[in-house]
UniProtKB/TrEMBL annotation, chains A, B:
<dbReference type="Pfam" id="PF00440">
    <property type="entry name" value="TetR_N"/>
</dbReference>
<dbReference type="InterPro" id="IPR001647">
    <property type="entry name" value="HTH_TetR"/>
</dbReference>
<feature type="domain" description="HTH tetR-type">
    <location>
        <begin position="4"/>
        <end position="64"/>
    </location>
</feature>
<dbReference type="InterPro" id="IPR011075">
    <property type="entry name" value="TetR_C"/>
</dbReference>
<dbReference type="InterPro" id="IPR009057">
    <property type="entry name" value="Homeodomain-like_sf"/>
</dbReference>
<protein>
    <submittedName>
        <fullName>TetR/AcrR family transcriptional regulator</fullName>
    </submittedName>
</protein>
<keyword id="KW-0238">DNA-binding</keyword>
<dbReference type="Pfam" id="PF16925">
    <property type="entry name" value="TetR_C_13"/>
</dbReference>
<keyword id="KW-0804">Transcription</keyword>
<keyword id="KW-0805">Transcription regulation</keyword>
<feature type="DNA-binding region" description="H-T-H motif">
    <location>
        <begin position="27"/>
        <end position="46"/>
    </location>
</feature>
<dbReference type="InterPro" id="IPR036271">
    <property type="entry name" value="Tet_transcr_reg_TetR-rel_C_sf"/>
</dbReference>
Length: 193, 193
DNA sequence: TTAACTATACAGACTAGTCTATATAGTTAA
DNA sequence: TTAACTATATAGACTAGTCTGTATAGTTAA
């Protein structure tokens, strides 16, 4: 009948509950109830709630990587692929909007964790990866190297726009803020060429 | 001896614990212990933990308004006062850095709350107020009105930089990211004149 | 005296995680 | 075909502690 593993059911349920209500506010009982799974199935697949959280964080990042791959696959140059980074986030936002868009799940997860936690470090690594993607795409472009106009600085500028717009879009329930940030990034790249 | 009211002790303790460990993860017992106050003093001053959270959110915002007022008081024009918005956040970041900087306390608080909560709405109002401050300062400047170069669009761009840089600064433990965002905003304004 | 405070105890629901025992489906081998 | 074995799932009771909020009685200071 149901050939979906308990592990996948748990990750799906945790993904929904953690994103909608926050991680700390979501108990393991709520997760197993939503997953329709026995409690021991949680603890057979994950050593602890912390490990489930870590898997959730990785899954959210992978989810975004997949959305980005789909958006950037058939694009011909770095400029367009940088803009596809925004498109991938917008896809994600519009998907979550039905249940209540609350911004980036990774930043939200980090916001609940102590400063030196492994979870915050994992989110940091994922965000660095996004920045590296932006930087790699920009490096393909013939940027005019004015003072302080390096690809690295431009990549950071674009990432600030990205994360800022997602947070404020989630707060003000205005998903379109992400596409306005995309237009800002577009103009920045145009000026840097 | 101690002429500090129980209410103020509670707000101070809650401010530290909520910021460092998150709101949901902080129990009222931890707050009263840190405040050195009886539990009934909490419930005499606040109807519930929710009301303490609301007071915490307002206090964080007021704290930033005070930092901004101190930074912008003796400045002569809107350009400088927009940059003072970044300075005020940097002051806040450097203050928190001793205990572990975790980005903006208001965005972190919002990240723990459900999509339609009063707390998220309060944080949204505060962020709108920051944007209005930026917009008001920009409105004093003689901006050249190119296509899509309105004061409103520039204000939004600067706010994206602001929030994005604070979040990423908190994640990567690189407070200097805020001053790099300040430099980006500076150049944007220069170009818009 | 009045108001704000303290200390302690309590109710009742919830927390993460463990335990035993059982069911079921797929694989392997005689 | 039948039997043994393995992996994964289940139910549900249980521990030991935490959570918010309340109740009660005593204390301190203006």
């Amino acid at each position: 009948m149901s050939r979906v593993s308990a592990r996948d059911k748990l990750l799906k349920a945790a993904g929904e509950l953690f994103y909608d209500h926050g991680i700390t506010a979501t108990g393991v009982d709520a997760v197993i109830t939503r997953a329709g799974v026995a409690k021991m199935s949680l603890y057979n697949n994950f050593k602890s709630k912390s490990e489930l959280i870590a898997a959730y964080i990785d899954a959210r990042h992978q989810e975004w990587l997949d959305l980005f791959a789909r958006r950037s696959d058939n694009l011909s140059n770095g400029w367009e692929r940088v803009l596809a980074v925004f498109d991938a986030y917008q896809d994600h936002a519009e998907f979550d909007y039905q249940n209540g868009f609350r911004g980036c799940g990774l930043l939200n997860a980090a916001a609940e964790m102590p400063a030196d936690s492994a979870e915050r470090e994992a989110v940091n690594r994922h965000k660095q990866e996004v920045r590296d993607i932006v930087l790699n795409q920009l490096s393909e472009l013939p940027l005019t190297e004015e003072s302080g106009n390096s690809a690295a600085a431009l990549a950071e500028h674009i990432c600030f726009l990205l994360e800022g717009s997602i947070s404020l879009a989630g707060l003000s329930r205005d998903v379109d803020a992400i596409s306005r940030a995309r237009a800002m990034a577009d103009k920045l790249i145009e000026r840097a060429l």
